[in-house]
Amino acid sequence: MVYFKKQFLFLIPLVIGLAQFLLVVGPRVLDPSNIGWLEMVDTSTYYLGWEFFRNSPWTFPIGLSPSYGLEISNSIVYSDSNPLLAIIFKSVRDILPHPFQYFGIWLLACFVLQAWFGWRLMKLLSNNLWICAFGTGLLSFSLPMLWRLHQNIQHLNLVAHFLILAALYLTLNKNQNHRRILHWAFLIGFSALIHSYIAAMVMLLWLVNLLQSRSAEQITSKQFIVEYFSVIGTLIFLFWQAGYFSIATGHGAGGFGNDGFNLVSLIDSGKSDYGLWSHLLGDLPGDELGHERFNFLGLGIILLIPLSLYSLIKNYPYLMEKIKKNIFLVIMLVLLTLFSISHQVGIGSIQFKLDLLEPILRGVGGLFRASARMFWPVFYVIVFVLIALIVKQFKPRYAALILGLALAIQIIDTSSGWMAIRSRLMAEPQSTWNTPMVDPFWQIAGKHYQKLRVSPSLLATEPDWNYLGYFAATYGLQTNAAYLARIDVSAQEMIFLKHAEVMRTGNYDKDTLYIIDDVVLTEVRKNINVNEDLLIQVNGFNVLAPAWKKCAECLDFSNKK
Length: 561
Prior knowledge:
By secondary structure, this protein is mostly helical. Helices cover 51% and strands 5% of the residues. It is built from 23 helices and seven strands. The strands form two sheets. It has a five-stranded mixed β-sheet with strand order 4-3-5-7-6, with helices on both faces. Strands 1-2 form a two-stranded antiparallel sheet. α8 (162-172) runs antiparallel to α9, α17 (376-393) packs antiparallel against α18 and α20 (440-448) crosses α21 (465-475). Keywords: Membrane, Transmembrane, Transmembrane helix.
């Protein structure tokens, strides 16, 4: 019986992860033909980015996606379409159905792996089954992770908090063997193909572990150098192939400090606009907590703090010893906290700026402007330490009871937040989007033209850009109706100039269907070739169809206004 139990212990974290997925998300997103839940602003570009990447020819680097964005297009990375899965599924695209989405499978993997690495962390503290199970539940039922599924946010790649837990496990595990290079190279490479923020956090934890290992003489100087350049080389290669370097300018973004970590966010259950994540703990009055600043611990974990403080007092030497052994990690966590706060310090509704820090942080801040995300490793260390102090102070049966009650409170009290997620994601499955583009004109135009261009606006600045992109994807048109995380600024400026010249001369590309913005509609009317081109309004869109009147197969839409 003991042998049987040991053989199947690995199933416990898998069951925990699956149960939490079914509780919060539900099974309907696993249907690959269900794309209805991806119709929101952010998720629409994830799906469209995959659709255009799927139908485009293979390139080198393999992550390039030339059809989504036209001249501004860059790669699968900047549509946040999960480059890893996009590349994997593109390799078997010929056998995939239409439509096909892999984002539901991804969410299931995130929940299961979150519990798996939470379990691995707990095994560093105890071999007691119930302590490990309840501790895993607290680490895996992470509110900053679940927050990414909110309907106004939906950053699906950023649900991959399991990568942070995996990096923490490798950092805290003192029994790493000679395969540590492979472990870290794989983890960092995996992270690089998911999201740059996650990759940065994993990289920092790897550097901490590398320095700690060398300081403790667990590795030699030669091993240090070999591992450093092996991991960095792997990272650069994967960044290159995924398409991170596909834009020459525009890697940074403005607004650093606007989404910094607020010092009360650990106990702030959210804002009413996004939904409160506690039945008992309300919104803190006067707090202007933005959606990126959400780092709520949850009532269950907050209730562990008094008992953990008692344990800290009783076991102060033990904690100091652990800090000394992990001094590089402690330093890194302090630096991450300071960076996440940024130069615009927020304590609830109190805000003040440290101007001296702004020039120092501006460069890196442009790359990671949503700096509150960089607090996530600190968040998990806080939860882990709270659990560790409970395990250290109390007998196993009492520690398990405390952690079990905390987990139950955590799940029940936060249902005010995650139930809204479940309600939306369990909506009736849909294999199409509810597009306003229902006129028969679009079907004819989609088959007649090769490109769809929004002019002069670019990149999600036009209302209903996602439906324009969906139309283009449906008919295999290249388009600039795209929403990308980063764009090449210099290329964008040149395209604006080119569009201005086209509108001035009326010399439109014959293979391109144009969506005309109201602000330039008068100018377009002045220079249109009325004998060949058609300018009409269809379903609320100003449409210019070059050479439409010369097309024998095209219907007569000249009577439309």
